[in-house]
Design goal:
Helix content is 44%, strand content 14%. By secondary structure, it is of the alpha/beta class.
């Protein structure tokens, strides 16, 4: 990449050791999915929210619970169903006869890591309960704004849209997820280990926290400190501009998506032990960041690789 400075010194060894410990523990639980696990961790280090889309039974919920345990975060799971109400997620004010006042009963959204399980089985009204929380990291009820815990992550699982009983997520909801990943089926050797080994739920319940809250916050701050050269910014802008003019796409990436792409690339660079974002870091996270935000005029998935191939590295 022309015009880019030489790569700076790698981050402190403590950061690399902490990241390696988290990845190693997660890989012991979710087998044969190292690339997806790295994307999930990059999403959380970039202070984003994560959408995991796949068929039931491939480990989506297990991965979310394992992340919470490994990072030492408070965890709440909300099972999204067709009859779910916003109050079931956010909470509700209850009248207290003893005090003669209303008392707010906090909903499961007031946790550091919230699993919105099978989010697309709930109605759009219930899905909308997450919009303010995911963007503003606060909840407003009865005219009062209440901050959410820090850090605050939403991990949502989604079943394929062709399955019975699903509602499509609105574009405004999709755009609030920094990344979307798919786990897919395990390889034969990994599946054999799953069949012969310890039950994954027991394994997750026994997981220790390998990262303190202070260490997690420090890593998130380290992401912001990863250097981005002017030439790398040119590359990101060129990619974003291409999505807005590419034939066959109904809409391009928003400025929020462009900012998210850069944050995700910074987090990926940190995981790779770099202090400078390189084009390959952008390319590594590109599909996870953009494919759920883009839509083709003709039916069929958007090809991130085709978009990358159309934009030369400056």
């Amino acid at each position: 990449m022309s015009g880019a400075p030489a790569d700076r010194a790698v981050p402190p060894r403590t950061s690399g050791a902490e990241i390696a410990a988290v990845l190693a523990q997660l890989n012991r639980v979710i087998l044969d999915k190292d690339a997806q696990i790295r994307l999930c961790l990059a999403c959380l280090l970039a202070r984003g929210h994560l959408l995991i889309e796949d068929i039931p039974g491939v480990g989506k919920t297990t991965l979310a619970h394992a992340l919470a345990k490994s990072l030492g975060l408070s965890f709440q799971r909300v099972q999204f169903t067709s009859d779910l109400l916003p109050a079931d997620v956010l909470g509700v004010s209850i009248y207290d006869r003893e005090t003669g006042k209303f008392r707010f009963q906090h909903g499961p959204i007031f946790a550091q890591l919230v699993l919105a399980d099978e989010i697309n089985r709930a109605s759009p009204k219930a899905q909308s309960a997450l919009l303010e929380a995911m963007e503003e990291r606060q909840v407003t009820l009865d005219g009062q704004s209440m901050p959410l815990p820090e850090p605050f992550f939403v991990i949502a699982t989604q079943n394929p849209q062709e399955q019975v009983g699903t509602f499509p997520l609105p574009e405004s909801q999709l755009d609030r997820f920094l990344m979307r990943v798919r786990l897919g089926y395990p390889a034969a050797a990994a599946e054999r280990e799953l069949l012969a080994g310890t039950d994954r739920r027991e394994l997750v319940n026994a997981l220790p926290s390998v990262l303190s809250l202070d260490a997690l916050r420090a890593l998130q701050q380290s992401v912001l400190a990863v250097h981005v050269s002017p030439a790398l910014l040119d590359y990101v802008q060129a990619l974003v501009a291409h999505t807005r003019s590419a034939a066959g796409l109904t809409v391009g990436l928003s400025p929020r998506a462009a900012i998210g792409l850069l944050r995700a690339a910074r987090a990926w660079a940190l995981i790779c032990g770099r202090n400078t974002v390189l084009p390959e870091h952008v390319q590594a996270v590109f599909a996870a960041v953009v494919e759920h935000r883009l839509e083709q005029r003709e039916r069929g998935p958007v090809s991130a690789n085709r978009l990358l191939e159309a934009v030369p590295i400056p």
